[in-house]
Amino acid sequence: MHCGIEFEYLMVDTTGPLAGRVRDFSNLDYPVIRSILENKPGRDDPGLATGDLGIKSGYWYLEGDERFHEDGRFHTLAVKGVEIRTPPRPGIAEAIESLLSIEKQLIPVLADHGLGLAVVGFNPVHPGYTFTPPLNPWEMDLRRRHRSYDGSLVSTMSYGPDINLSMPGWLPDQCLDVARKLNHYSPFIVPFSFSSPFSGGGLWPGCSKRTYERAGRRPAVKLFLDANGLHELRSLSGLVHPARLPGEAGRIEFKAFDAMPSLAVLTACCHLLVGVCLADDLTGRSEGCDPALYRRGAMAGFNDDDIRRGAAALLDKARIALDRTGTVSGTDALAPLMQLLRERRTPAEDLVASWQETGLAYRPGAFVQHLNAEAYDYA
Questions:
Q1: Alpha-helical segments (H) within the chain
Q2: Does the chain have fewer CB atoms within 10 Å around its N or its C terminus?
Q3: Residue 160 in contact with residue 83, Cβ under 8 Å?
């Protein structure tokens, strides 16, 4: 199974009198930060889509809300952070290695300008994102026609990894079946990643402000198919989208995770998705979502009995599937998640504890900068 990772990072000041300050749409000038990040690897990789506007090139790019002039010309980007994306790799370990390699290249580029990476699932500073200036008629019509733009009030505040999986040789109907399965079990998958216990400069009363706000507003899963697959299945499923490049055909994109601040948990969550894909005794399938169930989990995490039981059953079946297929040792691959479930804990609790000690409502630094500490934590 091939894997690719798209990971959204918060940016913060690392030097000067405002070290630790969150940098986002409120204090980042798009042309300036764009010029800083313009020299980047992967700009000539033909396997990467560049988006409708062509501004998402290379192995890192700025993420945020695209704003337009009244005649539809691109105007600017309200920057929420920077995203790293890896090319598809022939396994999870290879995708993680690619993520770390790109981080190593990005860190000094930002450091030259007093900036650094940080990880958290939801903007911890602002109570919300507002359109500044207000939407013009062309932009309002765009949001009526395209849901991806209509969700920008939430997506501009939230951070998380998109995990992309594909199995060469799978037929379109097999891909759709797996996408529906991931969609159905997502409320029991995402609590392992919860990492957004902050909002508006203080504590939020649950584990995942991100999941609470995105439930029912943003998709958990997308499936990309070529023209033949679209002709066959698009009328049957809202999860299906056109592949923009030949290499995208058959790609299943899981979009519901919080930006978990631990590399060990990120790796384990990728294995959990693969285990769910391979588990033939998981019978649930869904086209839609249950916002109430997502929000119950977002508030209580594994202290909710139904969420905990569902997650435990899912984890066990994924472990068995990984063992049976010889993909990896399921027990080893999923150990960090088993620990979280056993302790009825999510990564959000660790972030709260750190905030109480340091005052930082995020985990500072890239994953590669925490490798030794994580090896110790999960030994």
A1: 30-36, 92-111, 137-145, 147-150, 152-155, 172-189, 209-214, 227-233, 263-278, 291-300, 305-325, 330-333, 335-342, 347-358, 371-377
A2: C
A3: no
Express each pLDDT in 181-217 by its tens digit.
Answer: 999 999 999 999 999 999 999 999 999 999 999 999 9
CA 251, 257, 263: angle at the middle one, nearest 5? Answer: 95
CA separation for the pair 243, 223 (Å, rounded)? 9
| 379: pLDDT strictly greater than 50 | no
* Rg over CA atoms, the chain: 20
d(CA 64, CA 80): 5
What phi and psi, each to the nearest 5 degrees, are found at residue 127?
-70, -20
Both tokens of 282, joined, read: 């998981």
Note the Cα 42 to chain centre separation in Å.
20
The residue with tokens 């990467």 is: 48
Interval 336-347: pLDDT, tens: 999 999 999 999
In tens, the pLDDT along 103-127 reads 999 999 999 999 999 999 999 999 9
Q: State the sign of the Cα–Cα–Cα–Cα dihedral 18, 20, 21, 25.
A: positive
Please state, as a whole number, how many other Cβ atoms lie within 10 Å of the Cβ of residue 318: 26
CA distances from 311 to 189, 263, 274, 298, 315 (A): 6, 20, 15, 14, 6
Q: What is the pLDDT of residue 44?
A: 86
* Domains in the chain: ranges and CATH: 2-372 (3.30.590.20)
Distance between CA atoms of residues 351 and 362, nearest Å: 7
- The stretch 126-138 carries a mean pLDDT of 96
Looking only at the bridges linking them, the beta strands covering 161-166 and 2-13 are antiparallel
- Mean pLDDT of all residues in 285-303: 96
**3 state DSSP class of 258:** coil
- Is the pTM higher than 0.70? The answer reads yes
